[in-house]
Amino acid sequence: MADVQVALTLPILKKGAEPATGPTVVEHLQLMLNQRGGYPHLVEDGVFGPATEASVKHYQQNENLTVDGIVGKQTWASLLSRWLLQSEPG
Fold it and tell me: Which of 15, 38, 63, 84 is the most exposed place for a label (fewest CB within 10 A)?
């Protein structure tokens, strides 16, 4: 079976920003952070406020990423790869 590559365009997320896609993408970010043991535990409300920024920074530090509280290309790649690995059966 051939490998399939998927290209995604994900917004850069940071505190106070509202992505054009609406709060849903922030809710998914919060869910992923919570399921990765994020600290602090987040209310999945779609608001990128101080708690979400703190959880992003905590994740970035634990994953040896640039700790800036901004969910850009590297942070998305790390989160999504961990999310997909966690979701694989077996």
Answer: 84
